[in-house]
Amino acid sequence: MDDKIHGEAETAPHLKEKGLDPLTHSTVNASGHEDSLQRQYHLIATFSVALTIDSAWTALGGSLAIAIGMGLYITLIYWLTQKANGGPAGVLYEYLVACFCYLLIGASLAEFASSIPSTGGVYHWASVASGPRYGRMVGFFAGLCNFFAWMFDLAGAYSIASSSVLGMYSIWNDAYVPQAWHAYVTFVVLVFISCLVLIFGNRWLPVLNQIGAFLVVGGGLITIIVCATMSQHAPSSFVWSNFSENNVTGWSDGVAFMIGVLNGAYTIGTPDGVTKLAEELPNPSHDMPKAIFVQVGIGTISGFLYAIAILYSITDLDAVVAGEFPLTVIYGQATGSAAGAFGLLLILFLNVFVACITTYLAVSRAWWALARDNVTPLAKLFKQANSRLSCPIQSVIFVGIFCCGLGAIQLGSAAAATDLFGSFIILSTLSYALAIAAHLLTRRRNIPKGPFWMGSAGFAINLSALAVILVLDVFFCFPALYTTTVSTMNYNSVILVGLALLITAWWLVHGRSNYPTPKVLSLYTKDGLM
User: Fold this and answer.
1) Contacts of 47-50 spanning 24+ positions with Cβ under 8 A
2) Which of 162, 265, 382, 458 could form a disulfide with 371 if both were Cys (CB 3.0 to 4.6 A apart)?
3) In 44-117, at which residue ranges do the beta strands (DSSP E only) sit?
4) In angstroms, what CA-CA distances link 492 with 62, 125, 377, 435, 476?
5) What are the residues whose beta carbons fall under 8 Å from the beta carbon of 223, sequence distance 6 or more?
6) 491 falls in which pLDDT band (50, 70, 90)?
7) Is 466 helix (H, G, I), strand (E, B) or coil?
8) E strand or H helix at 394
9) For residue 211, what pLDDT is reported?
């Protein structure tokens, strides 16, 4: 198909300039495929998608909503309740460092998104940046690594949403004792509802995301104001000081600080989320870079202010530690009433649930993009898209089933499930690193210049982003405690190696012989851009 398209394009430049297939006059997008989905996300809707997927302050608070009683281990809970990694002061300062790092990463990804506005995102950027010789293999690994990262993040998001539901229920039922299966049933129900929304309500998704963005900004502002205006607060020394005194990890302050940046990264680390909807935007080359910077900027501010408000609201740390739902206890201390705590928790749940739906949307598009290029098993099935519903239905259903399967892990081992969900940051940044490293090693020559191009500053920013990823990912594999046990061990490195072996095996079994050169690589090569 590519040979015919590009061969004919030479005799029909007016069609090529309009992005049309000279044979069928149908639109050929930046991925090299014909458009299959409606381009319905204008600029504000695009910003809304980026903000909703990230939902920085809810990611921060939602991690506290996970029930300690169900055995789930979230690092922020440990830092606050056990005073590790610098305590509350560590949470704040480590968060700011994470946001700065993601500003560098986001700038690098924004440049890619502007140049190659494809739903494949990192997968296609790594393919083109690596050039014709290595692009096929590098893109294959980057694409699958990125997909699994987002798949684990999606399961983690639904875990937060389901725990928030149980937290709201517990406010009015003091005798309630949460069980793992309660959370899982809620998890499955929320995934099922989301699946129906994505399949049958696609045309309403831009509106839903704008509601989500309103909840991110408005709901966050309401929560911050409520927490900040209550009469009782923790002393400033509890919030801003005593980092060394609160570092009980056994690591030096510097190492403990670097390990602690992980929580901030989990809160802000979704810069490529919006790029998975590139082929549903009328003007993706211009709008996606803006959306990435809006996400990082607003996410940084909202998350930081929320963290301050929450930390000042903790007046009885022992009660937070003893509670089944820590955030519920904190909200109760902040408002002084069950109704107030319920209201704030409801705001968080609505925000998280919309974020779950939008993240589900993005992950299904990522799987669909891989299937179009025959990366996945059963690619002929998953590459299909329903033109009437503007939805790759099979991919949406698959992602939902996969997500429920991941959620079921907590029934057997909650710690294993949480480690898997938490590996999102390492796996996603590793996929970014493959694309950025290829971009640097080819002296930034293979990626065409888009509307957002960093010029001479690009090399320094790309190099800084790559260095940040490599350094942080090493620390993120360290255990939280210097003296560790099986239960407190950090299994990120095990997950990383296991996934690398899985992708390598799939490459040897399928990719090496059955995965063709992706259309995006053929497109940019044949257009003389390399």
Assistant:
1) 47/213, 47/290, 47/291, 47/294, 48/206, 48/209, 48/210, 48/212, 48/213, 49/209, 49/273, 49/274, 49/277, 49/291, 49/358, 49/362, 50/273, 50/274, 50/291, 50/292, 50/294, 50/295
2) 382
3) none
4) 21, 25, 26, 21, 8
5) 57, 61, 306, 309, 344, 347, 348
6) confident
7) helix
8) helix 393-407
9) 97
Strands (E), 365-405: none
> Distance between CA atoms of 100 and 218, rounded to whole angstroms?
24
Are 198 and 364 in contact by the 8 Å Cβ rule? The answer is yes
Instruction: Give CA–CA dist 313/428, Å, rounded.
Output: 33
Terminal C-alpha separation, the chain: 20
Structure tokens at 292: 């990435």
Q: Which two tokens stand for residue 352?
A: 């998280």
Q: What is the pLDDT of residues 8-55, one digit of tens each?
A: 333 233 333 344 443 333 456 888 888 889 999 999 999 999 999 999
Q: What is the DSSP letter of 16?
A: H
Contact 40, 206 (CB under 8 A): yes
436 touches 443 (CB < 8 A): no
Strand partners, 28: 34
In sequence order, what are the residues at sequence separation of 6 or more whose Cβ sits closer than 8 angstroms to the Cβ of residue 522?
2, 6, 32
Distance CA 393, CA 228 (A): 45
Residue 363, CB-side half-sphere exposure with 13 Å CA sphere: 31
| Residue 346 placed within a domain | no
Q: Which helix (H) or strand (E) holds 51?
A: helix 43-54
CA distance 349 to 147: 25
CA gap 351, 216 in Å, rounded: 7
Of 130, 235, 14, 178, which is closest to residue 520 (Cα–Cα)? 130
Separation CA 111–CA 103 (nearest Å): 12
Evaluate whether residue 11 is within a structural domain.
Answer: no
In a domain? residue 140: yes
What's the DSSP call for residue 123? H
- Nearest alpha-carbon partner for 404 in 66, 196, 163, 151: 151
Q: Are 199 and 393 in contact (CB under 8 A)?
A: yes
Radius of gyration, alpha carbons of the chain: 23
Residue keyed to tokens 């970014």: 432
Domain containing residue 205: 38-339+413-526
Query: What total number of domains does the chain contain?
Result: 1
SS3 for 464?
helix
> DSSP code of 27?
B
Which CATH number covers residue 463? 1.20.1740
pTM: 0.91
pLDDT, position 263: 85
Q: How far apart are CA 127 and CA 524, in angstroms?
A: 10
- Give the largest Cα separation in the chain, rounded: 76
In percent, the amount of the chain with pLDDT more than 70 equals: 88
Locate tokens 């705590």: which residue?
A: 341
Contacts of 170 (CB under 8 A, 6+ apart): 176, 178, 324, 325, 328
